[in-house]
Design a protein that fits this description.
The chain is mainly α. The protein is built from four helices and no strands.
Length: 136
């Protein structure tokens, strides 16, 4: 089951905001290190950023899908299409994170990895906005 903070707009927004803010800060650090040719440190930050998305965002998505979305759907079956789209956003985030992990393992840190990290932020921005509208 999902916690009560998922059901309250302000608390839910805080969860989203915290994860996105931390992710942006780590990505900014990663980009700076990469551009400054400090690739060893950048590689470390990339691994931390992957862990961040897994523990903060993917875990949050799992929790939403296991309880919160089920509860919303039970209360209002008309939300099925909206919830399906939000779940697809979660799937896209999982795909992007998995791709980043594979690229880091096989090719190391590249511009493409950084682009994938940026894509995660874009998908999250759209997803969080849509989800918060659903909660309001």
């Amino acid at each position: 089951m999902s916690g009560p903070s998922l059901r309250k707009l302000d608390a839910h927004q805080s969860i989203h905001e915290g994860a996105v803010t931390e992710g942006k800060e780590l990505l900014d650090m990663l980009v700076k290190l990469y551009k400054d040719d400090q690739h060893q440190y950048a590689q470390t930050v990339a691994k931390v950023l992957v862990e961040h998305w897994e523990t903060r965002t993917i875990a949050h998505a799992d929790s939403e899908e296991e309880g919160f979305y089920v509860d919303l759907l039970n209360k209002n079956p008309n939300l099925k299409d909206s919830l399906t789209m939000l779940k697809r956003d979660h799937d896209l985030l999982r795909i992007l994170v998995t791709d980043v992990k594979d690229m880091l393992k096989n090719e190391g840190l590249t511009e493409e990895v950084i682009d994938h990290f940026k894509a995660i932020l874009i998908v999250l921005d759209i997803h969080n906005h849509d989800e918060e509208i659903l909660l309001s």
